[in-house]
# Entry
Amino acid sequence: MRRTDQQVSSSYQSDPANPLTFLLYTDNAARGRNSGIESQVGYRPVPALRLGATVGLLRTRFVDYTVGDRTLDGRAQPHAPDYQVGISADVALPSGFFAHVDANAVDAFYFSASHDERSNAYRLVNARIGWRNERWTATVWARNLFDERYAVRGFLFGNEPPDFPDKRYVQNGDPRQVGATVAVSF
# Structure
């Protein structure tokens, strides 16, 4: 994909000594280039077991883009990890027992075009087990099973007195969540 007048979410603090002057805005980059490939495969070695894998590879670059005194020509675009991969396994027995586990890995990415802060690469594991029949399903599940701490958004700006030095602030993804679900069909 080749993009012209690419829209980019950005930010700017017009007065470094005043955090109230922090602005979020949409800018137009000169151009951008994106290329990638995604693939998914599934395999069923026995009727009760399904294995799966996914991969997504992505390369993004700004072309002729300048923000203030910063030239971003050739830099990767925000929120565009170079890879995302996943594996999964599903078991469904005739007795009604079922289980699912998946693991996903995401590469580091830039948070914004307005600064050079990046996320760290991270891995998440999700799982669920349960039992079902024609009338009801009971499931115990966990998301982010190993309680991975990972950033999904990030900013760099001065917000803390008295000198208001630039500091990294991040919004983390969801922590571990564990629950149970019961569904009844009428």
The two ends are 49 Å apart (CA to CA).
